[in-house]
Amino acid sequence: MDEINHKNYLDQITIYIKSYLEKKPGICQVKNDIKPPAERPAVLMWEQKHCLLLPEDLKNFFLTCNGFHLTWCVKMENNTVPVGNMELCSISQLVLLDAAVDDGSHLTPSLWDLDGDKDKNGRKLPSFVTSKIFQLDQCQGYGKVCLVYNEVTPKGEDDIDPDNENDFKFPSDYTTEIWFLDRSLRWHFICPTFQAYYRLMLMHLGLPHWQLAFTDIGLPPTSLQWFNLYAPVRLEIDLMGDVTKSSHTAGKGMASPLDLNKVFKGKSDRKKPGAPQNMASGTNVSKKRQPISSARSAAVAGKHVTASVSQPNVKSK
After folding, report:
1. What pLDDT shows up at residue 280?
2. How many other β-carbons are positioned within 10 Å of the β-carbon of residue 182?
């Protein structure tokens, strides 16, 4: 009974993505590897080992299900092609990437030489030397999704003399973000929290290379075809270049204003009387006329009718 309740709870936190995919045409073999929750001592041991605190959203995820893996395929003629893949590591697989050394030279370069100050949006890039980087997803070899701990400089630390033993240094504090590391070792920001990344993963249905939509590399042509087939709305949002904002604001910027006057323009025009003006002028209009479709055509029709009625009166004089 507990396993059944746990499965139903996982279906809720995954917004029933498995049932949604099974209803899509052509999709088959939707497999969700349900993993049991992690033990709380295992989470505490990880924090003590790395001297870090896990973000609350990621910690709650591990205490709910220790990892996540969902795959799905597409049936094409007589073949089955694997397409979708959503994967998040377990607490034991959340390993620290090898740190770089800062004593490299032109003869023995290191990852420290690749460190940059800020990205094009002014955000501080992760450092291979000072940041603590943990791998969340291997992305099938085309990159890595990483949980990055960036050290926050305490207030007044720049004034501390490291050679003076009497100067007190505050303990290090860190902020966490989710970044994507491509195969050329360049960093690309995805979102500020694990919860936001989890939602993005579900909304992209685990389509191939979906993380590249957050980079200047862009989606490859084959991935664009899968997006057009199974997630065209998400592709349109990604191509607008504001994917992170769209996931947090729940489409506030995507709503287009609705002008009710334009929507019901045809109905309001039909209510405008075009013929009573001719009746007030004392002219008799023939009952057999062509139907009037708009106010403009009514005005034009009124002119022709008054002209045809007024001509016999001139001749009679």
Report:
1. 45
2. 17
Query: Average of pLDDT values for 197-206?
Result: 95
Q: Is the pTM higher than 0.85?
A: no
β-strand pairing of 27-33 with 68-76:
antiparallel
The tokens of 264 are what? Answer: 């019901």
Calpha distance 234→200 (Å, rounded): 10
Q: Provide the token pair at 310.
A: 């007024």
CB atoms within 10 A of CB 274: 17
| pLDDT top residue among 197 and 307 | 197
Cβ contact 96:149 at 8 Å: no
Burial class (CB in 10 A: 0-12, 13-18, 19+), 133: buried
Report d(CA 56, CA 38) in Å as an integer: 14
Cα 120 to Cα 131: distance, rounded to the nearest angstrom: 19
Q: Are 214 and 240 in contact (CB under 8 A)?
A: no
Which residues make Cβ contacts (< 8 Å) with residue 66, sequence separation at least 6? 35, 36, 37, 38, 90, 91
* Tally of CA atoms within 13 A in the half-sphere of 228 that contains its CB: 7
Q: Supply the DSSP symbol for 316.
A: H
Q: What is the pLDDT of residue 115?
A: 65
Distance between start and end Cα atoms, the chain: 102
What's the confidence (pLDDT) of residue 49? 93
Q: Which residues contact 253 (CB under 8 A, 6 or more apart)?
A: 242, 245, 246
State residue 2's pLDDT score: 65
- Say how many residues make up the chain: 317
